[in-house]
Amino acid sequence: MRIKxxxxxxxxxxxxxxxxxxxxxxxxxxxxxxxxHLLWFNSLQMEAPATLGPTTLQIAQENIAKYWKSDRxxxxxxxxxxxxxxxxxxxxxxxSGANICASANSEVGLLYASYELLRLQETDGxxxxxxxxxxxxxxxxxxxxxxxxxxxxxxxxxxxxSLWKWDEINANDVAANSNIYAEYARANASVGINGTVLxxxxxxxxxxxxxxxxxxxxxxxIFRPYGLKVYLSLNFAAPKHxxxxxxxxxxxxxxVAWWNAKVAEIYKLIPDFGGFLVKANSEGxxxxxxxxxxxxxxxxxxxxxxxxxxxxxxxxxxxYDAKSPDRAKQxxxxxxxxxxxxxxxxxxxxxxGPVDFQPREPxxxxxxxxxxxxAMVEVQITQEYLGHSxxxxxLHPMWKxxxxxxxxxxxxxxxxGAITEGKVMPYKYTAIAGVSNVxxxxxxxxxxxxxxxxxxxxxxAWNPELSSEQIANxxxxxxxxxxxxxxxxxxxxxxxxxxxxxxxxxxxxxHHTFKGPDHYGPGPWDRSIRPDWEPAYYHKAxxxxxxxxxxxxxxxxxxxxxxxxxxxxxxxxxxxxNLILWFHHLPWDYKMKSGRxxxxxxxxxxxxxxxxxxxxxxxxxxxEQYVDHQRFADVKAKLERQAKDAIWWRDATIQYFQQxxxxxxxxxxxxxxxxxxxxxxxxxxxxxxxxxxxETLPEYKLE
Length: 703
Ligand code: GCW
What we know:
Layout: E1 8-11, H1 16-23, H2 26-33, H3 56-67, E2 74-78, E3 91-94, E4 100-104, H4 107-122, E5 132-135, E6 141-145, H5 180-190, E7 195-197, H6 210-223, E8 229-234, H7 238-243, H8 253-269, E9 275-278, H9 295-306, E10 312-316, H10 330-335, E11 346-351, H11 366-369, E12 375-380, H12 396-403, H13 416-420, E13 431-435, H14 451-462, H15 468-479, H16 484-505, H17 535-539, H18 565-570, H19 580-583, H20 598-622, H21 629-661, H22 676-681
Parallel strand pairs: 2-4, 6-7, 6-13, 7-8, 8-9, 9-10, 10-11, 11-12, 12-13
Antiparallel strand pairs: 1-2, 3-4, 3-5
Bound molecules: 4-O-methyl-beta-D-glucopyranuronic acid.
């Protein structure tokens, strides 16, 4: 006999009025919530979870029992009959009856439903619900990538040290560990993130030693009730490093046997281990090419070991080498010959753009090229190139721009999103990755508003259709205040912030004009040990003009795009102007659509970015009454810094380019505040992991 409605539990929101009024109490919010630690649970004042204890179902039940404020009862039903299409994680919430009924095929589906209900409640969304709300995640594997090193530093992390305290993790008594790990897992579950790669893609092989694996197992146990699976980055040379084998050649029998045994050992400890993330033959990491083998040889060897256990390999396509005349072309050149050779449980993890997480890039053409290979998108949540944790830059618009980009692979509608969701060609596995911005800072992400990027990543991975505005507004309501006079202006500020950053850092398709390896601040003049690490490789500013010619007369990168994009990008008259210097090298006096010269347009776009950043300070000042004093002051200081940085960026970039253009600042531009010679000497140690705080630019003034 089939068991139906395995559990059907009804909760009465008993005694919750007291709690509700407590969470609405401004005093409570100021004292408890103002360091930002409560994330988007601020409006609920959610209690810290126990490190271990409750099951998934119990967590869902508790969410409702403790935090559901309405007197309408909520039923949570497991294994309801109608739920077949919900899959293993989806849920349905029926608002039509007297009771609200949430059903799912699994406990984790009910857990997600409970967070959906609380989100609706906290964002005034319940009134609009009267029928059935069905929700199924777009991507099966919604993964965070931590670039956390075993020594506690975080590569491109701007929120303190790693959350993982490897020295302290107690593998023998899991419940004795800090409950920060359960808090982290809960935050992820609440936005639908179901996987986490714990260590940096520049991987230390030691993560696969028994000592570390036992600690990974402890974390996996804490995460499990929240539906969060653990993955690891592997070092391809691990057999050499850890077992003293002479080689790590993926076709060597001993190497294969070593990986098989290692994978079996991991699954014995962590039966639901998700799989491996691999950066191979990229930026000095070892890989199969060290042994004359291909990416496919390497990925498939690991994939075969994982296959019996249901694990996957996420093999990165982030490859480039110093000799390539156009780095943007290399992923396609290196991976397309391998299309069709990858095992079924391999996904190729591709950064949103073809270079490297720049403020604006076109989508990576590799998404539209693969015909027989599963691709997944990697976005960067940490703001490596977008002002670190000093700038308020809400990234959802940037990510959505990539997912919504049409590759035209199979005619219109073959967007990056549709392809990677497996809607264009059938995929066995679908996934998406986001490089985490979480550290051990009290507020998790360094900037209070950087939390919105963690939140938005999860919401997008679940439902890529949600708009930037909706996600921003719901985050604001849960994190700060439901007051319309707060949410409206600040929501608009958030949605505008990415474009503002593009404008004040590198507009019109400029890219990689950063100072030094910190990737913070302007340095179009900067030199390096490799040409492709120098800004001039990308901007090519000279007396004859500026921009990278990627047309058919130049590097030919446009040919990696399908028609009509190829012609659109190739033709300077049709190329979107927000990418024009990505694809074209143009004279300084080139006529833009506005009728202005390229030079004037460039200067005025920078100015517009400065004005936007400046206006953010005013907007924030105008909502002071709705924000607790601590978070208000924290954000204000950072917004002022951001607005000054915007001027710094403009001063440096435009004065540097002026040496070539010989043209003056057009009307409408503020005069430079600092001279180029001084800015060229200017260094700030922003990549200071011990103290990644604001270092002011005292010379800059806000008007
Ligand atoms: O964006 C670049 C970063 C490196 C990073 C690399 C990668 C983890 O500057 O710090 O290394 O990309 O994505 O592998």
